[in-house]
Amino acid sequence: MYVILVYDCGEKRVAKMLKLCRQYLHWIQNSVFEGEISEVKLKELLHKAKRFIDESEDSIIIFKSRQQQWLDKQMVGKEKNELDNFI
User: Considering the domain 2-67 in this protein, what is its CATH number?
Assistant: First the structure.
């Protein structure tokens, strides 16, 4: 499945969340990741995230799609991390 993951964490937990998400998805903007991921890997990511986030203050939002082709993505301004550079 293709996902867009957005998180909002307290300052002390942002670095941990960034490092975790980079293991599973592509970073595209501050606190925003996207990419293909299996249901099992997504559950694994969320399980690891729940170990250090504060659910009373922090949030993780996941938008799911079967495939990237079903998402219409429009970029305005500078893209922070272009995915087209992969060989």
Answer: 3.30.70.240
Other beta carbons within 10 angstroms of residue 15's beta carbon come to 10
pLDDT tens digits in sequence order for the chain, 87 residues long: 999 999 999 999 999 999 999 999 999 989 999 999 999 999 999 999 999 999 899 999 999 988 766 676 666 666 666 655 444
Return the domain boundaries, the chain.
2-67
68 vs 4, 48, 57, CA distance in Å? 10, 25, 30
56: left (phi over 0), alpha (psi -120 to 50) or beta: alpha
